[in-house]
Amino acid sequence: VHCSDGWDRTTQMVSLSQLLLDSHYRTITGFCELIEKDWCSFGHKFKDRNAIGYTPDEQYSPIFVQFIDCVYQFTRQYPNSFEFNEQLLISILDGLYSNLFGTFLFNCLQERDENEVSSKTESIWTWVLANKQIFINSNFVSEKNEIGLTINPHNVVFWKGYHARNYEPWTKNLEQEIDPENMVLDEEETLLLRSELQRVSQENLELKFKMKLLSESTSVEIEALKLENMQLKETLKKFQDK
Questions:
Q1: How far apart are CA 158 and CA 146, in angstroms?
Q2: Cα separation, 35 vs 53, whole angstroms
Q3: How far is CA 227 from CA 179, 213, 241, in A?
């Protein structure tokens, strides 16, 4: 398995294959080891691919987020085969974008060593293993076996728990089982999304208009102050001449 560079699609495919073939990587400790081994140490370009703290350019591509989303799909298809729950996946992505940990900083291990990341920051794995109890899947059954891959597209769903966790109509029902057959938003959800989009767009336009008015107003006020200052100087000069 090898893509053009070896640190994007190659890492995705190899990591997902190991999850299916080796039960160790389906444990909490094993999953942390897998990411550290095949993503962090192997040289996935977290800085460029996720544009963390930078303006996205042609290097931007959320490869790691795709991988974590794929893992979520696996955990749905095999709810008893993974020791960790959805919260671990969400926490890892939050750790990726929050810059709270040094694990995902820069583009490779060499850059992290050059910037002394290990001595200046905490590893996300230290935090995960210290809080292991909140990531335990209560339905986990420890079995040393391989698991297959169900390729039916109906088993792939939109990950509401992460991508829509702040969308109120969905957050109320996150604990409910998601129907794999429901691949399309229903009419009510579509209308809600459109309404929300229109609201945000309108607020954005109003904000731009207010900023423009404020800018113009500020400019006028500045000119008025300059004129008033000149008049004061002239008055003072006249007074001094007398």
A1: 25
A2: 22
A3: 69, 21, 21
One-letter amino acid of 74: F
Q: Which of 3, 32, 70, 108 is catalytic?
A: 3
Hey, what are 226's tokens? 């300059």
Spatial neighbors of 107 by CB under 8 A, at least 6 apart, are 43, 45, 46, 47, 48
Structure tokens at 142: 């420890």
pLDDT band at residue 192, thresholds of 50, 70 and 90? low
CA torsion angle 53 55 59 63 (round to 10): 50
The DSSP letter of residue 3 is -
Does residue 236 sit in helix, strand or coil? helix
* Burial class of residue 189 in the structure, from the number of CB atoms within 10 Å of its CB (0-12 exposed, 13-18 middle, 19+ buried): middle
DSSP 54: S
pLDDT digits (tens, 9 = 90+) for 131-155: 999 999 999 999 888 998 777 888 8
pTM beyond 0.70, yes or no: no
Closest CA to 35 of 64, 1, 62, 70: 64
Residue with tokens 């897998």: 34
> Which of 128, 137, 139, 171 lies closest to 32, judged by CA?
128
Query: Which DSSP symbol is given to 136?
Result: B
- ∠ CA 60-64-69, nearest 5°, is 120
Is 3 designated active site?
yes
